Automatic annotation (TrEMBL):
This is FAD-binding dehydrogenase. Pfam families: FAD_binding_2 (PF00890). Keywords: Flavoprotein, Oxidoreductase. Residues 11-539 form the FAD-dependent oxidoreductase 2 FAD-binding domain. It comes from Nocardioides abyssi. InterPro entries: FAD-dep_OxRdtase_2_FAD-bd, FAD/NAD-bd_sf, KsdD_DH, Succ_DH/fumarate_Rdtase_cat_sf.
Amino acid sequence: MSGASGDLRADVVVVGAGLAGLVAAAEAADAGRSVLLLDQEGEQNLGGQAFWSLGGLFLVDSPEQRRMGVKDNLELARQDWFGSAQFDRPEDRWPRAWAEAYLQFAAGEKRSWLRQMGHRVFPVVGWAERGDGTAGGHGNSVPRFHITWGTGPGVVEPFERRVRDHVAGGRIRFGFRHRVDGLVVEGGVAVGVHGSLLEPDPADRGRPTSRAVVGDFEARGSAVVVTSGGIGGDLELVRRSWPARLGTPPRRMVAGVPAHVDGRMLQITQAAGATVVNPDRMWHYVEGLRNWDPIWDDHGIRILPGPSSLWLDAEGNRLPAPYFPGFDTLGTLRHLRATGHDYSWFVLTQRIIEKEFALSGSEQNPDLTGKDIRLLLSRVKKGAAGPVEAFKQHGEDFVVAETLEELVAGMNRVGDDDVPPLDPARVRAVVEARDREMDNTFGKDAQVTAIHGARTYRGDKLIRVATPHKLLDRAAGPLIAVRLNILSRKTLGGLETDLDGRCLRADGTPFPGLWAAGEVAGFGGGGMMGYNALEGTFLGGCIFSGRVAGRAAAAAVAS
Ligand SMILES: Cc1cc2nc3c(=O)[nH]c(=O)nc-3n(C[C@H](O)[C@H](O)[C@H](O)COP(=O)(O)OP(=O)(O)OC[C@H]3O[C@@H](n4cnc5c(N)ncnc54)[C@H](O)[C@@H]3O)c2cc1C
């Protein structure tokens, strides 16, 4: 029955072989420590969520920004970060400190450190999370979203390479299908973990795997680093953690992360005596599509929208400013929850979908993921990108029509039975009111003003924001409506850690022998993003906190 527990001993035991775990393991091994890297999934899942990610990274004052004419600096980034985080609790002490440390990293060493490992970014910087319309409030004042050349796999690759080199050299050992069920704590010190050996499962990466137990194990070390990810794959847990300030939890959601993002380890570490803070802070999207070709259960894909689509709630009311596509994720979520319905609508044209729809995820961007320049160039040609076109044709959330009346009829077919049917005349009135504002490059419609404003940024004009036009301009058609579901994704709170990544006990003292990094630690401190994220901050948060924890655990073992 037992999983050769005598062999499972190392200086550092890392729980979770996602990005944070890979970084922590590589850093600890570089410092000369032996490392055991455990994961409940098989080797085919190495890299965890990061593999599936778009690989967007938050950088401040990068050469890419400067080349695109963006003036950015640490002070502006700090204003945006703290305006978004809105820290307001005593337990925000460490998250604040992590936020400041991370900002210094993003404005300093981050790009060059990654670059020297072979990491590269796409030259056009994206403008994610444009904000709530106030200088001191939520959002990015300037574009900062740097997409990795190679997307998520391109982020994982340098760290996987370092880890595999150490495996070849005998300093790191993998323990796949080792599911940790508890910490081993002796005399108040974390000295290891115990758990179940899961039966081998050859399922493709990302697919749910068997939970059948074939044995047990205990692994011991002088340091335990927990890097087990967030809770977004357990939709019931997401609902239970849902904060009242975001309204009622949605009955229907799609899952933006694989099933292994199950949150179990967060509860296990807490039960052992570590502190969890800000569990009610989370980052879910409002532009989720049900994947017509799913990899995991309830698989949802997020649209990364440009600013031009008209956004209607389930009953056909236009969303108020500043809830435009790509501006204020949680503000929009809060607004939509108050409508009492689980979905909303984008209304757009073929011209808008061609220029403004990007889908988040490595598998949805074969050109960037495969570093295929010819395929990438086809984005500027007529027609939507292949994966977007495939969703348009096969996705259950899409309606395409030549006239607005046909479009609304299609929306009523797709919409829920318990939602009052959309009235074509009312939808026409909303669309025509918006279209009348398109005759000038100025006007009083805040979204139209934002569209014109976005196009003064070269990157947006080049590849992201369609030439302003009327939705009812036949030459821009056909018309398209997209039903948008709520998509679970990131956990913003988590294990409270100090600036060395040490887990803390309820009295604020370090839990000897125990570190945490990545999403399980709220990307540092137990929630360095506070209430709102600026995007591209999650992967970078895993890299930064994994590096800190790996180095600190290695140093503690040495002493
Ligand atoms: C589609 C998609 C797109 C994204 N795009 C971006 C982006 O562009 N930019 C950005 O910054 N972020 C993005 N993210 C978010 C980012 O990828 C994640 O926040 C990050 O990768 C989390 O890494 P992690 O190492 O903390 O956790 P994970 O990747 O979740 O890894 C945790 C590992 O721990 C293992 N584990 C869990 N519990 C146990 C246990 N009890 N025993 C043993 N093993 C366990 C899991 O199996 C898993 O392998 C995206 C995420 C997704 C899914």
